[in-house]
Amino acid sequence: MTEHRLTELEHHDIELMVAGVLPLYLSLPGDDAPAPTLCLPFSPGSVGDEVTLLDREATPVARVTVAAVVPDAHGWWVAGAVQMLRPLHAFAYATLRPGEGTAVDGPATLYTGDVDPLPEPDRAVIVVDHGDPRALARAVTVATQAASAVRVLPEPSAAHLAGEARVSLLASLAREAFDIEELDVVASERSVGDGMVILLTGLSGSGKSTIAKELAERLRATVEQHVTLLDGDEVRAMLSKGLGFNREDRLLNVQRIGWVGALVAEHGGIAIAAPIAPYEEMRAEMRARVEKVGRFVLIHVATPLEVCEARDRKGLYAKARAGEIKEFTGISDPYDEPTNADLVITEDLSPAQAAEAIISTLRLEGR
């Protein structure tokens, strides 16, 4: 049986399903699969006949009987009937979320981000829970002071929808969840804090760790924010001790780094992470997690393979060439070069020059 740990927004999917709202939008991308089903993206070849859904504490909360698997640009989508095994954990502002007794009497305004500008008198306000507890608390506080009634709409995962389609989805869910006939939509921006995660990705021996340490020292001397360095080797020795280097373990390692980095950013700090992070999907997942609470900056340390291999201080490339190390990035396992890096560092830059280039990039963005 396949297991899948739910992301925060996938928890929202289940919440909406239990509240009877999910059938409004749930279908396989490009298909008209009937409700009630649940769609989740998976890695190719990782799905069985049943999928057990785990909550944030790895407790089984639901089981999906797989009815269809459809690939698209976001992954392999699994659809199937859902059987709840136990209630979900309690969500923030539970009494304001979809469920019995939360219908809105009268007109309402849905804010997709911050509550700005303030609503007109005598209109209820619907705020969206994007998975950022601090942003949600700010929005609810402002709305409570200005509105006749406040409700919280969980944002669904729906990875195949973006832009206007996603706003339209939220509006449809709000109408259904809170029995609203007259709804205005304010597609407002959602502000995040000053925290950030700087991810340096590149091959083993590319110089990521050295640059990251130089960058951390310089930032500690110039900014008031707390700076945390999450070096790849140190994380492997502590946070991810016991994990191997197969695809699943690599994904889990970077997920852990992203989780810690997002916590640092959520509390206003700067996290610098320097794992190899070879797969685009893991970097995209980290970006999505971090950008709920702060800023994500991707740095590609693009040292060529032949240069990394010539350095080979640990003798890892030699062992990989000899077959002693399996699934070694750049030799027997792929490295997905980033196409959306904020900065590309070449091998002709010294660590000090590279760190200064990164800081200049941060300044160019107005930070």
Textual characterization of the structure:
The chain is α/β, with parallel strands linked by helices. The chain has three domains: 83 residues, Sulfate adenylyltransferase (Roll), CATH 3.10.400; 93 residues, no CATH class; 169 residues, 3-Layer(aba) Sandwich (Rossmann fold). Helix content is 33%, strand content 22%. It is built from ten helices and 14 strands. The strands form three sheets. It has a five-stranded mixed beta sheet, with helices on one face. α4 packs across α10 and α6 runs parallel beside α7. It starts with a strand and ends with a helix. The relative contact order is 0.11. About 2% of the residues have low confidence.
Task: Give the arrangement of secondary structure elements.
Blueprint: E1 2-5, H1 8-18, E2 38-42, E3 50-54, E4 60-72, E5 75-84, E6 108-111, E7 124-129, H2 133-146, E8 150-154, H3 163-178, E9 183-186, E10 196-201, H4 208-222, E11 227-231, H5 232-237, H6 247-266, E12 270-274, H7 280-290, E13 295-301, H8 305-311, H9 316-321, E14 343-345, H10 351-364
Parallel strand pairs: 1-3, 6-7, 6-9, 7-8, 10-12, 10-13, 11-12, 13-14
Antiparallel strand pairs: 2-5, 3-4, 4-5
Helix pairs in contact: 4-10, 6-7
